[in-house]
Amino acid sequence: MNIKILLVEDQKLMRIGIKSLFNDYPEMEVIGEAINGKEAIEKSKLIKPDIILMDIGLPDISGIDAAKQILENNNNIKVIMLTSHINEQELNSSLTAGANAYVIKDISTEYLMYVIKMVKSGAMWIDPKVVPFIRDKNNGIIPSRQISRSTFRQNHSNLTQREYEVLKLVVDGQSNSQIAKTLTISEHTAKAHVCNIIQKLVVDDRTQAAVKALKEGLV
After folding, report:
1. Which of 15, 36, 63, 184 has the highest Cβ tally under 10 A?
2. CATH topology of domain 137-216
3. Domain 3-126 has CATH 3.40.50.2300
4. Do domains 3-126 and 137-216 have the same CATH topology?
5. H/E element holding 157?
6. Residue spans per domain, the chain
7. Distances from the Cα of 52 to the Cαs of 79, 146, 203, 217, in angstroms?
8. Which own/partner pairs from 148-154 qualify as long-range (CB within 8 Å, at least 24 positions apart)?
9. What is the pLDDT along the chain (219 residues), one digit of tens a residue?
10. Cα(43)–Cα(37) distance, rounded to whole angstroms?
11. Residue 37 · residue 79 · CB < 8 Å
12. What is the model's pTM?
């Protein structure tokens, strides 16, 4: 079954560009478009999409307010917020409104498709570029349990010392290639460590691993 998508974006060229990304992904279909928040609310009721790609900066009401109203009416819909910049208030408000993902617009096509599939399956996703921002701001978006590192390690004793080192770099927002350079290992080895961490922490991706480490007080 195709993943049905409602695209909400006020700029015509941006809508055309985003829509064209799905040409090579037949399992996904843009079944509707909206140019503002009010139109998004109405179309979500009419066409009942699986996923809404929602621009935050809309000309009438914000994408965040539109998402909140849409989800109050139908919580089966998943909303992915799209933004061109990282903003503390917008990030917090997006998650509070019930958005399932917060994505910076310079995301690669392949990664966006991965996020859509993951969100459709029920997962949440925060752009990796936002993780260091959350850590540095400590703004309550991810509540900390305030436990010690020793307690974390006791809870996750199956992580090796090297995997802890890799996890810290993941939290810092480093890619596999950057981790490889930092630790003087091959990119293949770095990727293997990240995959092991994801499995051992029982999460879906590197971002969720970073979020879990932050919540558990490791970093």
Report:
1. 63
2. Rossmann fold (3.40.50)
3. yes
4. yes
5. none
6. 3-126, 137-216
7. 5, 35, 24, 33
8. 148/217, 149/217, 149/218, 151/217, 152/213, 152/216, 152/217, 152/218
9. 689 999 999 999 999 999 999 999 999 999 999 999 999 999 999 999 999 999 999 999 999 999 999 999 998 999 999 998 877 788 888 988 999 889 999 888 888 998 898 888 887 788 877 766 665 554 444 444 343 445 545 555 578 888 888 988 888 778 888 999 999 999 899 998 998 888 888 787 887 788 777 766 665
10. 10
11. no
12. 0.66
CB half-sphere exposure, 137, CA atoms < 13 A: 16
Cβ atoms of 103 and 134 closer than 8 Å: no
- Pick from 157, 81, 152, 158: which is nearest to 116 by CA? 81
Instruction: Tell me which residue of 21, 73, 1 sits closest to 44, measured CA to CA.
Output: 73
172: CB partners within 8 A, 6+ apart = 132
What is the amino acid identity at position 172?
Answer: D
- Give CA–CA dist 8/42, Å, rounded: 12
C-alpha dist (Å) from residue 178 to 9, 89, 169, 188: 33, 29, 9, 12
Element (DSSP H or E) covering residue 56? none
